[in-house]
Design a protein that fits this description.
Length: about 170
């Protein structure tokens, strides 16, 4: 019968049992230290290829396609506020399926500037999708969504049952 101790990889490149090692703890520590250094190197490589090395303009484009979302809740409803600068209400699609609110959108922005000695055009195209779990039962017939000046506001009224389930617990001084 094989024990768990016998199956542990104490050195890279092969499996050795606890009894085969002269100093098993040192061997294990060395292997873990090697793994830690390799993981650090991997993350450093990722950072050097990722957003940290992205030019500022590209970083702004990336952040513009991932909208900020604020979610608040009171006794009667869940309120979601989504920042969508430069977008119109026709560019946004909202769905609620099995307790998951999904907001999808497509941004199409073109800037063109002409001068005597130059012509500049910039385009930003992209889609986003954000999903938020809604942990309570919602009265779907009363959901409201409005869009004004690049801000989408969604109100998800709690069902009567969900409102009854809320129990306020008083906090006493210790």
């Amino acid at each position: 019968m094989t024990t768990l101790k016998q199956m542990m990889p104490w050195r890279w490149g092969g499996l050795r049992s606890w009894e085969d090692e002269e100093r098993p703890f040192e061997s294990f520590y060395t292997g873990m230290e090697s793994l830690h250094k390799e993981m650090d190197r991997l993350f450093d490589d990722f950072r050097s290829m990722g957003m940290h090395s992205m030019p500022m303009g590209r970083l702004q484009e990336f952040s513009q396609l991932t909208p900020r979302i604020d979610e608040t809740e009171d006794d009667k409803a869940i309120h979601v506020r989504v920042e969508l600068p430069g977008m119109d209400q026709k560019d946004v699609d909202i769905t609620l399926t099995d307790g998951l609110l999904t907001i999808r959108g497509e941004k199409k922005q073109e800037d063109e500037e002409k001068g005597k000695d130059f012509y500049r055009t910039e385009r930003v195209f992209g889609t986003f999708r954000r999903s938020i779990p809604i942990p309570v039962e919602v009265d779907e017939s009363k959901i409201d969504a409005s869009f004004k000046k690049g801000v989408l506001k969604i109100t998800l009224p709690k069902s009567a049952e969900a409102q009854k389930k809320v129990k306020h617990i008083p906090v006493k001084a210790a």
